[in-house]
């Protein structure tokens, strides 16, 4: 099978809720990283064969196939098509998978993958709420087949994260320490300029807005749980955010004919389903499956990115995999940097690539929990 290479990866700084990027139209958010991607890679945009973007809540400014809209808003060639996909929080990681699979199959030679989300303008689950206003069925409890299989229990990421904390006996104090470390690592990365090469400043925002310099364990301990008697608080949850990210994937022929420089190759791609009620445990079986299929060990990776949707997601995964915590989210995660849903998968991949290049590492693994009980795993090898 042909190889798929990552030629370029770029992202916006992540804006916090109602922050510097809140007023930027989603199409312009995506257009910004697409423009930077083309400029930095030196690729001819007319040679791109498809643009695959992840996005959730595709209503309002995110409706109408946002992948196509972003490309056109960037002033790029009209003959290049675009498609928008939804695998919940893993949407833009799945976009990378689809792009790589197109290249590896020989179907395409040059494909853009990425994602965009403006959560300040279009809140999480906005599509569900709009649907209810118009009398549409609930996506879960409205289904007879779903109720027969899973009952009437509430299906939310918050309930899933709370259940994980109890099932793996992860204390609130342990989650708060993890959250504090996320902020500290993110701030260390910012202060040392580690994100400089991967970000394209936008709207006078040059660095991620989420990390908090004044957060302490004492302040976290004062917060009320998200549910009565629960362990989760806002401090151990990912931040509502705005942002976009994009990668350029190329075949060997495209690299040669377009005089591009491959920076990494796709070593493994897979996706796995899991319990949709717990919802967020998918990275555990997905990682186990990826290691089995590649014959690799968790110790073979120089850097790992697992999305910090909630602290217990990563902590349970660490318990099950035995991964070295020092290699996991070394530049901080979504608790500090934010989680612009449809863009996060591409943002993580961008950070992973640059982390491997900065440290001289060879293999990197990325995984993230996704709505419906799913998880993608991508393994890349730095060249």
From TrEMBL:
UniProt entry tagged with the keyword Acyltransferase: yes
Domain spans labelled Thiolase C-terminal: 261-382
Alphabetical UniProt keywords: Acyltransferase, Transferase
InterPro entries membership: Thiolase, Thiolase-like, Thiolase_C, Thiolase_CS, Thiolase_N
Pfam families in alphabetical order: Thiolase_C (PF02803), Thiolase_N (PF00108)
Cross-referenced SUPFAM superfamilies: Thiolase-like (SSF53901)
Boundaries of every Thiolase N-terminal domain copy: 5-252
Keyword Transferase among record annotations: yes
GO molecular function, one term: acetyl-CoA C-acetyltransferase activity
EC nos: 2.3.1.9
Domain of life: Bacteria
Family: Belongs to the thiolase-like superfamily. Thiolase family.
Protein name according to UniProt: Acetyl-CoA C-acetyltransferase
